[in-house]
Amino acid sequence: MNADTDPAALEHITGLIPMRRVGRAEEVAELIAWLASDKVSFSTGAVYDISGGRAVY
Q1: pTM recorded for the entire structure
Q2: CB–CB of 40/34 below 8 Å?
Q3: Residues 6 or more apart in contact with residue 40 via CB below 8 angstroms
Q4: This protein's superkingdom (predicted)?
């Protein structure tokens, strides 16, 4: 996903993320799979921050 991103821009973006890296598609997929599973069938809604700590509300 970031193969065509300018390396300097990617370094800047990564520097803004507290975990110091960008997320992987597999990490997002794991959250989606969990949300779609019976393990969370009682949940009626929530906000899940999968930004590596970058999101500011």
Answers
A1: 0.69
A2: yes
A3: 34
A4: Bacteria
